[in-house]
Design goal:
mainly alpha, 2 helices, 65% helix, 0% strand, t-SNARE coiled-coil homology domain-containing protein
């Protein structure tokens, strides 16, 4: 009956559905071509010409991301230095105001 066997997961059936009806349903689906097995992968392990182009595009995108991350890192470094400078100024003014008030 079947020329190919495949392993399938558990089957959920409606309550009261008989196994005979299930078999008939499977046979009907097979006749309609709805239970066809997946076609074997026809790709080979040889790299295709377009895959080299895709690889180059990926490398270009990686380079762009690296540049963007470097810019972001520089900006965060500048913000850190600004925050340190602001903290220093706040401490200086706090020290001056404490000495002025006493």
């Amino acid at each position: 009956m079947y020329s190919h066997w495949s392993i399938t997961g558990s089957v959920i059936t409606r309550e009261g559905e008989s196994p005979k009806r299930r078999v008939n349903n499977l046979e009907t689906r097979e006749k309609l071509g709805l239970n066809q097995l997946p076609k074997p992968d026809s790709r080979t392990n040889e790299p295709l010409p377009e895959s080299a182009d895709a690889y180059q595009k990926i490398e270009m995108e990686k380079a762009k991301q690296d540049d963007g991350l470097a810019d972001l890192s520089d900006l965060l470094g500048e913000l850190k230095n600004m925050a340190i400078d602001m903290g220093t100024e706040i401490e200086r003014f706090s020290f001056i105001s404490l000495n002025y008030c006493t």
